[in-house]
Fold this protein.
Amino acid sequence: MPVYGKISRRTVLGIGAAATASLAIPARAHAASSTTGSGVQGLRAARVFDGERLHADPSLVLLCGGTIIGVLPEGSDTGRIPVTDLGDVTLMPGLVDAHVHLCFEPTGDITTPSLEDSDETMLERIRLNARAALSSGVTTVRDVADRGYLTLGVRDERAADMPEILCSGPPITTPDGHCWFLGGVAESDDEIVAAVDERAARGVDVVKVMATGGTLTAGSNPFEAQYTVEQLRLLVDRAHRHRLPVTAHAHGAPGIAAAVQAGVDGVEHATFLSPTGVTVDEETIMAMAAAQIFVGSTAAQVPEGTASELVLAVAAVLASEYRAGVPMVCSSDAGASPEKPFTCMPYGVVQMRDYLGMTDQAALRSATSLAADSCGVGNRKGRIRPGYDADLLAVPGNPAADVMAMLNPVTIYRAGRLIPSS
């Protein structure tokens, strides 16, 4: 098996003789399963999926201070570093869910709580939902529908029992447009510019814009564009001036086309919904592929009986986008509806294979390295490499041969700390 990061004995030990003298547990010994996340530790696994490909031989992943410092073949001399043997599992990067709504309850009614619940209730919900996501193996979430920037406050708490949270703040939308009740209404050019500037000043990680209406907002039209190409281009240019990416919610073909022409970095859903079901615009799909615009599939959900004709039609559209070369990201839309609880992301990996026609390894990539790239954190998340965050997930068997293994996570590490419930 290749050594992913060639490091010297001194680098493996991380700190030289003085520090290693304090590591009293012999090499190949099993550390206690509870770890503080500080110091050097090793995780032994039968296989490693590094976010891009499977390494089928036993491996040892070394962590220090919440960071991966090395990946070595079984039998390497690690001195007296404590090692936890995870057994017959595949160790892989924690999942990255690029589309969640932490302030929503997954009941199907997103409007009433958003208008009526207190900030205290919202904050409690955000924390509970984030912890639920982590319990399923999601170590990074990107929240794309906040109310009053509450999620940014939770993000900045950096709690050890939550995934890392990336935030958009309230999505930018039109009067009475999709999710207007979250407070992100901007209609004129000046209002659009001011909305982007406010989000940049507050420290968001991404700008979210509603390029079409949505199915969960009464009175909005998911089939039609909410903004012109010129307005969206103004928004994108302003966000890029602030070095912020833009992702656009878009269902209908006119809104998807407008977002693509405006130069967005991502499109959420990209379902090509129409009053008759789905109406595909091949030219827009080819443009997305040419520009390598990420599409957030929002495919993850808990299976409930036989899929409807519309669900199958949408899946066929997403599959055609994937075959055309569009970077297709596994994500959940958690909180939007009852079949999308905050623990549903592992099902999405299975659905990327079964409905979109991905190989098992491609489905794994869509929820790890590719998802991290789509969120702008691919330089430190979504891969097992030296220097990357020690956000790790162990699943039984070999998910690169059958992603059904994702439904039964064995062990979860967040920033090098074992999550106790796992």
Notes: The chain is about 30% helix and 20% strand. Residues 55 and 188 are 53 Å apart (CA to CA). Residues 95-374 form a domain with the TIM Barrel fold (CATH 3.20.20.140).
